[in-house]
Design a protein that fits this description.
heterodimer, A: alpha+beta, Arc Repressor Mutant, subunit A, 3 domains, 17 strands, elongated, B: Amidase signature (AS) enzymes, 16 helices
Chain lengths: 502, 488
């Protein structure tokens, strides 16, 4: 593979994210995915004569939110421009876009591939309106157009050409998807088109500073496709150069079936979009307190959470990364942890020696439960954490039963967990009691306490074994103390005598 | 017999019971019928207007609630102002301008599915909308000779044009076919036809009146304007239609004063005028002479009237046409035959060809000329030479005008360099036609309010006007001085 030694792949991504506002960017039509075609179409959406746009403040807020999360500079003096072109799904014959003055400039997104971390710088994030949808497969004779989507607010996130492989593109998009979902500004669904991506791909000899001729690859419907398309396209470009050919600036489309791209048009017949300031909208000015307010509304993002999970909660990198993939999942986990002791490391409280801290630490136990039984259940049932029937408080109670030794992990995972799923309103302890799950483990708990007492008083055990039988009452007292007086004294005495015999 | 002189007097007559709204509407319907050849109206809402009049008469009899500000006022709308469930076409075939069919009825045109904000406000004030009025296609023209419905005739001399683009609206008031009418003014389309027809025409400040529902020609210039016979009527109408609108973000949030109640003001004012305008080779000598004389009279009456050096007249018409055609080329892109309006009957065309056929056949010559001009000045390679420079002219002009308003209350100009010309006279010379706008485009470039006052009569028998301009949102003082000038 001389290719990979000699050539460098250069990729810039343009990512469009549909914003989850209640209404469209410039009118009061509600946004509703999957609605009957052409049911969310006011005269404004349809571009009827005489209609005018009116800016949706929420969309600006969402764009700024994304910009702040990506460390961008926020532009305070903003205006929209018109991008003029004809297409049936573009009702006005122009798209209203911030193309000329993006609301967010610069910034970066951190990605991780293998063990290396890399900052991909952003060129910009700007607001624009979506077009309608042309449906080519509804009618054999005609193209049908659904204008429901027309006017939906989009942000376009444009990276600098700093992505060097399909793998990096995959990581970049994964990160964007994660971010928009954390910020709750886009559902991040690439298959349904609420997150869309075009890739500008070029190749150059390693060490060259000038960029090679780029090819724009469209129709990438999943993060995996983006990776594949970049890999096959860069290989095609390298092959052209290797054979002494010249790369033509083109727009190409990705065919998911073949994994290859094909040309859709050459750049020579590129449109002149005749951008000019949109006269129907006044420029909008962002005030410092508006930006400040948005900044404060941003939740802890994955990077920050991972840092906290690995340091304060002492989880592994892997656990932390998986837990933070989805905000709701991570929030759920944090709610379990919050039921535990205030000490972030989950150390046992002095007044609660048999509590959660005595077994596995709660954060670790919670992580195990989240990544084990909870995730399996969600996968099996194809559900999101938001529709998981057990509340974090209940799950915490269940974990506590295990941690305190009243219940074995396997009994909890196989029996109590499914019982709780079936009766999500019930108290886990009560179910355990009713199902006789706890009885058996009473002895277990006691056994554990006895072991602990004997282990901490090893010298006295030797003394006892050497004849000081009166020490038995001391051991019993210690066990009683540990159990906060809950241990049955006769059972404790019996168990202690048993153990001390061996 | 019904005679209209002012809204105030009409309302007094209605209160006294000397007249009814139905009688007023019947009067106008008859007048419209008698003057059909003027071609001012496109469609007359006869049955609807009569029914509305009847309802208002009944309501008045009951006495409650009190009548609206425009109770029973009979109004015509330029064919660029949307009225829900009524056909609208901007006098263009591309919106299926309706021509009479063989059985005498009109073919079906594009029907608006919503009402313009100004229409909503007229209706809420109990106005009676009697019909929509002929104009130049998409409000592009200075003679009303660019209409799919044909020319409108000047009622004072039918061989002459009524001016444009709101020619139908001007003639409707001039010929007594309604009490007051609405037009639109992008570069003089209200003031110039008012001048040619001898009536009053007001263009408010850009941002004073909502443009929602006004079919766009050039968005940053367009403004709804008012035609009337007297200042109090115009003030009352402005009061009703102006003010903030949640559907138009370019409308100012400024307070909209009750103009009609505050029209008297006897203080002396400060007027600026431009010798460069009055001595311009393009201006009719008689017009220049009378206006200069008028300026002297104003001084005698105690006003401060001074010339201000202004050498911009060679730039403002070109800058205006570069910017308005640029915006128009984009504004008119929506007429593509896909969603509504005219669509080429040719079957099985490839998409680009479909657009070409539809738009070539749907738009008239002048509109196509301006779309092409606008597309050109925005195209890469020419953008900076034309669009950017014209924007610069606009900005510098605004600064210059602001400087003038630091020392003066009003600027005086002729409305038009000549009186109403003969039909066909300038049709084949677009540059000469564009120069007709030389004194009116300034107010649109800067966004200030301007009014055309029919104070003079030319020896050729035609009227001509003095144009008065005030600073942004100074409609009140503009109407005050206008009221004094027309009464002198």
């Amino acid at each position: 593979m001389t290719d990979q030694i000699e050539y460098e792949v250069v990729v810039g991504l343009e990512v469009h994210a549909q914003l989850l506002t209640q209404t469209k960017l410039f009118c009061g039509d509600s946004i509703s995915f999957g609605a009957e075609p052409n049911t969310h179409v006011s005269p404004i959406t349809l571009g009827h004569p005489g209609t005018l746009p009116k800016i949706n403040r929420k969309a600006i807020e969402f764009a700024v939110k994304m910009g702040l999360a990506c460390h961008c500079d926020i532009e305070k003096q903003n205006y929209f421009a018109r991008k003029n072109y004809f297409y049936p799904d573009l009702p006005k014959g122009y798209q209203v876009t911030q193309h000329t003055t993006p609301v967010c400039k610069g910034g970066f997104i951190k990605i991780r591939t293998g063990n290396t971390e890399k900052k991909i710088r952003l060129n910009r994030i700007h607001l624009e309106e979506d077009a309608g949808k042309s449906l080519h497969d509804v009618d054999p004779q005609n193209t049908c157009i659904d204008y429901n989507r027309a006017g939906t607010p989009l942000i376009e996130i444009v990276s600098e050409p700093e992505i060097r492989s399909g793998e990096e593109a995959f990581a970049f998009l994964t990160e964007i998807r994660k971010l928009v979902r954390y910020l709750e500004i886009c559902d991040g669904n690439m298959e349904e088109g609420s997150l869309r991506c075009d890739a500008n791909v070029s190749v150059r000899k390693k060490g060259d500073t000038a960029l090679g001729t780029k090819v724009e690859v469209k129709n990438l419907n999943s993060i995996r496709h983006v990776k594949k398309a970049i890999e096959s396209e860069s290989k095609r470009l390298i092959d052209i150069l290797e054979q002494g050919g010249i790369v033509v600036q083109q727009t190409r489309s990705f065919d998911a079936d073949t994994g290859m791209t094909f040309a859709t048009r050459d750049k020579e017949d590129a449109d002149d979009y005749r951008y000019f300031p949109e006269p129907d909208l006044t420029p909008f000015h962002l005030k410092d307190d508006f930006i400040e307010k948005i900044l404060h509304s941003i939740p802890a993002l994955p990077e920050e959470r991972i840092k906290r999970y690995t340091s304060e909660l002492q989880l592994s990198e892997y656990d932390a990364a998986v837990l933070t993939e989805e905000k709701a999942f991570s929030d759920y986990f944090e709610k379990i942890v919050a039921t535990g002791p205030p000490s972030p490391t989950g150390e046992a409280r002095p007044d609660d020696p048999v509590g959660r801290g005595s077994g596995v630490r709660l954060p670790k136990a919670a992580a195990n439960w989240m990544l084990g039984p909870v995730r399996s259940w969600l996968n099996e049932n194809n559900k999101e954490i938001n529709s998981f029937p057990i509340s974090p408080v209940q799950l915490a109670a269940l974990i506590e039963l295990v941690n305190s030794g009243q219940l074995s992990f396997s009994a909890a995972a196989t029996k109590l967990f499914s019982q709780l799923l079936a009766n999500p309103s019930k108290d886990p302890g009560q179910i355990a009691f009713e199902q006789n799950l706890i009885q058996e483990s009473d002895a277990l708990v006691l056994a554990r306490l006895v072991d602990k007492v004997l282990a901490t008083h090893a010298d006295k055990v030797i003394a006892y074994k050497n004849g000081k039988k009166g020490l038995l009452s001391l051991f019993v007292g210690e066990v009683m103390k540990l159990s906060k007086g809950n241990a049955d004294p006769s059972m404790t005495t019996e168990l202690l005598s048993e153990k001390l015999k061996s | 017999m019904f005679v209209f002189s002012s809204i105030e007097q009409y309302h007094a007559q209605l209160q006294e019971g000397n007249i009814t709204c139905v009688q007023a509407v019947e009067h106008y319907l008859q007048r419209i019928h008698l003057t059909k050849h003027l071609n001012a109206f496109i469609e007359v809402y006869a049955a609807e207007a009569l029914q509305k009049a009847k309802n208002l008469d009944e309501k008045r009899k009951l006495g409650e609630p009190p009548p609206g500000k425009l109770h029973g006022v009979v109004i015509g709308l330029k064919d660029v102002i949307c009225y829900k469930d009524h056909a609208i076409s901007a006098s263009s075939k591309i919106l299926n301008a309706r021509f009479p069919t063989d059985d005498g009825t009109n073919g079906r045109g594009f029907t608006s599915i919503y009402s313009a904000t100004v229409v909503e406000r007229l209706l809420a004030a109990e106005a009676i909308i009697i019909g929509n009025l002929n104009c130049d296609e998409f409000a592009m023209g200075s003679s009303n000779e660019n209409s799919a419905y044909g020319n409108v005739l000047n009622a004072l001399d039918e061989t002459r044009v009524p001016g444009g683009s709101s020619g139908g609206s001007a003639v409707a008031v001039q010929a007594g076919l309604c009490m007051i009418s609405l037009g639109s003014d992008t570069g003089g389309s209200v003031r110039q036809p008012a001048d040619f027809c001898g009536i009053i025409g007001l263009k408010p400040t850009y941002g004073r009146v909502s443009r929602y529902g006004l079919i766009a020609y050039a968005s940053s210039f367009d403004q709804v304007g008012i035609f009337g016979n007297n200042i109090p009527d115009i003030a009352t109408l402005l009061e009703v239609i102006a003010g903030p609108d949640e559907f138009d973000s370019t409308v100012s949030q400024k307070e909209n004063p009750p103009y009609s109640l505050e029209l008297s003001n006897d203080q002396p004012f400060r007027f600026a005028y431009f010798n460069e305008a009055l001595d311009h080779p393009g201006v009719d000598r008689e017009i220049a002479f009378f206006i200069k004389k008028y300026i002297e009279d104003l001084k005698i009456k105690g006003h401060e009237v001074k010339p201000v050096a202004f050498d911009w007249f060679d730039y403002i018409v070109p800058a205006y046409y570069v910017l308005t055609t640029a915006e128009a080329s984009s504004n008119l892109s929506r007429y593509d035959g896909v969603k509504y309006g005219y669509k080429t009957p040719m079957p099985n065309l490839e998409l680009t060809e479909f657009y070409k056929q539809t738009r070539s056949a749907g738009f008239g010559k002048e509109v196509k000329r301006r779309i092409m001009l606008g597309t050109f000045v925005l195209s890469s390679g020419y953008y900076n030479a034309y669009f950017t420079r014209a924007q610069k002219v606009r900005k510098l002009l605004s600064e210059k005008i602001q400087l003038i308003f630091r020392d003066f209350d009003f600027i005086l100009l002729p409305t038009s360099p000549f009186t109403a010309f003969k039909a066909g006279e300038k049709l084949h010379d677009p540059i000469a036609m564009y120069l007709a706008d030389i004194y009116t485009v300034m107010a649109n470039l800067v966004g200030i309010p301007a009014i055309s006052l029919p104070l003079f009569k030319h020896s050729n028998g035609m009227p001509f006007s003095l144009q008065v301009m005030a600073n942004h949102f100074n409609e009140l003082s503009l109407l005050q001085i206008s009221n004094r000038l027309v009464q002198q």
